[in-house]
Design brief:
mainly alpha
């Protein structure tokens, strides 16, 4: 039994804090994976409950959910990585270097002709800029591109490793979710209504983000894949690649459409390169992504989640952008989760303040 005196309580809390810090240190390599697995559980729990209601078997229901997520995310991503590796191994970097040099000379020639019609001050600035560009060693740029590709391959290995642990943790969240939830409720020093309110709000926001991200990813991938199909490209490969690339912070689909446009330029198809670039920037990036994303979020909330969110759809949209900027790929779920949790806690704090008054 714990000594209930003041000294005994302080001693116990001190030991508890030290052990808690030791636990954090011990499991620090897996904390992010655990957090992502928990957030994925929050966003997909309704599907799990629906499957488990029919099967009435937690093991099979959990296994089916893991399999579905693997088929949805991991297998297409693995397909893209393998195909990109094969494409990279077949690139003739000597010809690529010659092409880059040729483009540089052509652009310089066109710009120099246009300088005759510009004021001297502007012309001098442009000439200085061209000199700096011409000083760039194309060979070193190609080598750096190869180094980036190698680094990306290593990152892909780490991503696969993270995905493995996330799926393992996610399985246990599905399997032990109910009992784990009851145990956490007993530990949190809030009444059950307040805890349930926080849980419902965060899980609803994460669900909206998860499903809207999938819809947006599929939509953008479909729009790009079906478009490049008419230019002779593998529609499925480039569609899946563009869909996943759209989740990458800042650059997004540029990782896909820019190499395609440059390849068309390499083949001498200037008009194709311009059309691919404009279509990707205007139709996909501007209209389908930024324009439709808030609408998709609102639709998912009202039709699929059917929960009364107390957070505006535009705030969720900006939380996704902030999460991607701050945390990278997994910021898609971390940003909205942190925002939803903060707002829910503020609402509870407000009720505390009223109780005190």
């Amino acid at each position: 039994m714990i000594d209930k005196s003041k000294g005994g309580r302080i001693f116990f809390l001190g030991i508890l804090l030290l052990v808690f810090l030791a636990i954090l240190k011990l499991y620090s390599p897996f904390l992010m994976n655990l957090l992502i697995a928990f957030l994925l559980f929050l966003s997909t729990q309704e599907i799990y409950f629906l499957i488990n209601k029919r099967l009435n078997n937690r093991f099979f229901s959990s296994s089916i959910m893991i399999l579905l997520l693997l088929l949805l995310c991991f297998v297409p991503l693995l397909y893209v990585v393998i195909n990109l590796a094969n494409m990279a191994s077949s690139i003739d970097f000597a010809n690529l270097q010659k092409f880059a040099t040729h483009i540089n000379v052509s652009i310089t020639s066109v710009v120099m002709e246009a300088l005759e019609y510009l004021p001297n001050k502007i012309s001098n600035e442009i000439v200085n800029l061209l000199h700096k560009i011409n000083e760039i060693d194309i060979g070193s740029v190609v080598n750096k591109a190869l180094a980036i590709f190698t680094e990306a391959s290593k990152s892909g290995i780490f991503f696969i490793n993270d995905m493995f642990f996330i799926m393992v943790f996610l399985f246990f969240f599905y399997y032990y979710g109910a009992s784990f939830g009851r145990y956490i409720l007993e530990l949190i020093p809030l009444n059950s209504t307040q805890t349930r309110e926080i849980y419902n709000e965060v899980s609803a926001v994460i669900g909206v983000v998860f499903y809207s991200s999938i819809v947006s990813m599929v939509l953008q991938g479909f729009l790009f894949g079906i478009f490049v199909y008419f230019y002779g490209y593998n529609a499925f490969l480039f569609g899946v690649f563009y869909g996943f690339a759209s989740l990458v912070p800042v650059v997004g689909g540029t990782l896909v459409w820019l190499p395609v446009a440059l390849y068309e330029l390499y083949l001498g198809n200037l008009s194709n390169a311009i059309i691919v670039s404009l279509y990707s920037i205007v139709v996909i990036a501007t209209l389908a992504d930024n324009g439709l994303k808030p609408i998709i979020i609102a639709f998912i909330n009202r039709v699929l989640i059917k929960a009364e969110l107390k957070i505006n759809e535009m705030l969720i949209f900006f939380a996704i952008i902030a999460g991607l900027t701050s945390f990278g790929f997994w910021g898609i779920v971390l940003g909205p989760a942190i925002t939803a949790l903060f707002i829910a806690l503020l609402r509870i704090y407000k009720s505390f303040d009223r109780d005190l008054l």
